[in-house]
Amino acid sequence: MSTSAPSHAPRVNATLREDERVTPLELFFDLVFVLALTQCTTLVFHHPNWEGLLKGVLVLGMLWWSWVGYAWLTSVVNPEEGVVRLVMFVAMAAFLVCALCVPGTFGNEALLFACAYGVVRGAHIVLFLLASRGDAALRRSVTGLAVSTAVGVGLLLIAAFTRDGVQIGLWCLALVLDAGGPYLFGADGWHLVPGHFAERHGLIVIIALGESIVALGVGANPTLHTGVVVAAVLGVVVAAALWWVYFDVTAIVAEWRLERAAEGRERNEMARDSYSYLHFLMVGGIALIAVGMKVTIVDVNRPLAIVPALSLLGGAALYLLAHVGFRLRNMHTLSVRRLLCALVLLALLPLGVTLPALATLGMLAAALVALISYEALRYSEMRQRVRH
């Protein structure tokens, strides 16, 4: 007589991350954010007024916060193992639907956006619950996040049945409560791999910079002329300068500081403030610059209206101010030169609405090149030590 061992159904679980390498699936997931970012800049481009600007920022804020959730998640679990891979694909599909809904988010597609967004956030919470088995502190943090997520999604669902000021007000409240959840519920129970977390956010900055380049190509007139070519070159100069500002020294020092922060609350709060919050201002600033570039290259000789001019110059100022806050949070020192450059760009706004758009883009490129040239020369020895 033969006997067989009792069979047990496999337990659904998540494999914890063991290395700092960003996986191919994470890069694949981030590609959906490219479309989302493009859709947000296009929304503002087609509605270049204060209401369009506010709506674009709100949609980008909600989509950014959903991306941030997966950045934290994949710094805890390996996204390419077990059921996590399949759920990530589901989240990608829902995220894509959200991106497709962006043009009609405050109109006919409002309900579909809210439902798809709920799937993205719900999948995120489910995976975190799997990862928190046996970790009481993480489970408490995930429970708090689930509450703020449910409130945010619920407000978006209610907003889908409203219009105009009430709808925008509900969106503002949803973003504040959803993004403010980790701040209100504390940062004790979370885990992250510092090198992976910093690299993941650096890659999303590159994706945003890529959108600014795409904006030049999308907005360019099919018939190229000298002004369009010059605008394209200046646009690349601006994007390269923004890259330099982040990756030359800042990203290296920030990752080093995050790795050396005490594990637990100190490291988690630093990651939350420096990356989850301040990086939104950086990405938002780049997205605004993309709007300004797109409007500029459509007609390089016409002065920019107030919203596109503010997007171009104010977006760059916002990007630099985010770097000022980034350094202040991580190194507890003030970058006076970047603060002054941001103030100069804001002071140039009256010229931005009177001079040809090409001249405004040229002023922005000149200011950023002057900033990075000064930093490279003034702090050359320190820069070499940090980089090498």
- How much strand content do the residues show? under 5%
Q: In the CATH hierarchy, what is the architecture of the largest domain at level 2?
A: Up-down Bundle
Unreliable sequence segments: 1-11
Termini separation comes to 71 Å
* Name of the CATH class of the largest domain: Mainly Alpha
CATH topology of the largest domain: I/LWEQ domain
Please indicate the count of domains.
2
Radius of gyration, in Å, reads 22 Å
Number of strands: 0
Strand and helix order: HHHHHHHHHHHHHHH
> Which descriptor suits the 3D outline?
globular
Secondary-structure-based class equals: mainly alpha
Discrete helix count: 15
In helices, the fraction of residues equals over 70%
Query: What kind of sheet is the major sheet?
Result: none
Please tell me the overall pLDDT: 90
Jot down its keywords:
about 400 residues; mainly alpha; I/LWEQ domain; 2 domains; 15 helices; about 0% strand; disordered N terminus
